[in-house]
UniProtKB/TrEMBL annotation:
SMART domains: TGc
One matching Pfam family: Transglut_core
Entry annotated with the keyword Protease: yes
Keyword terms: Hydrolase, Protease
A Gene Ontology molecular function term of the record: peptidase activity
Organism per entry: Aquamicrobium defluvii
Name this polypeptide is given: Transglutaminase
Domain annotation Transglutaminase-like: ranges: 157-221
Keyword DNA-binding: no
Domain of life (superkingdom): Bacteria
GO biological process terms held by the UniProt record: proteolysis
PANTHER family tied to this protein: BLR5614 PROTEIN-RELATED (PTHR33490), SLL1049 PROTEIN (PTHR33490:SF6)
Amino acid sequence: MRLKIVHRTEYAYDAPLHYALQRLRLTPASGPTQTVHSWSLDIEGAREEVCFRDQFENETRLVSVEGAPHRIVVQVSGEVDTLDTAGVFGTRCGFAPLWLFCHETPLTRPGKGVEELAVMAGDGPELDRLHRLMALIRDRVSYTTGTTTTHTTAEEALAQGAGVCQDHSHVFVSAARAMGFPARYVSGYLMMEGTVEQTASHAWAEAFVPKLGWVGFDASNGISPDQRYVRIAVGRDYQDAMPISGIRLGQAEERLAVAITVEQ
């Protein structure tokens, strides 16, 4: 399937910025589940400083702003051919060693709730256990926007029983690691049924299964990723794979607007 994606992010300020530095992870790579047919990244109101691949092989760009601009616009667009591999990405790990994805992070540190989920997933074949874990998370954490932030931990989202795809992914990663699986966070896009326009990108999790490699699990939708998914970046958690992050200096108030379209 060929998917067409446009993702526009606009920052508006009520005063000039003294200085800002943004890190962009918005460029997909061709791999086992997708082939990038075309992709472009356009930036207004900022200048690109450097482009590199980080430790997780995510294409990363640093852009800076200094002085007059009151507005920064970052827009990516392109077309990606996707395959349905039943969620299997394979053994490719990039520069980061596999053991790195066994270690907890502040966002994925397990507590009593996550440890209970890991036990409830039970015994048996690896894939069966991981699919049971995904079903447990979907049952216990309802998809509810506005209930969490980018700083909400896996344990907090599980305790309040509500969150979004970021939270589902963090809970899965945390519990999968507690079960002995290397696990990682994936950011990307999903073509949704009945709607083209979206207000946020998507996220899911992957666990490393012997003989299969990385296998994806989207607890928000209760499925493994198929041909409707486009992967952009991976990491230990959201902080490692977030599409745009950065710092700014000055007292200017910021307004953010995001518009995304994903269609066949």
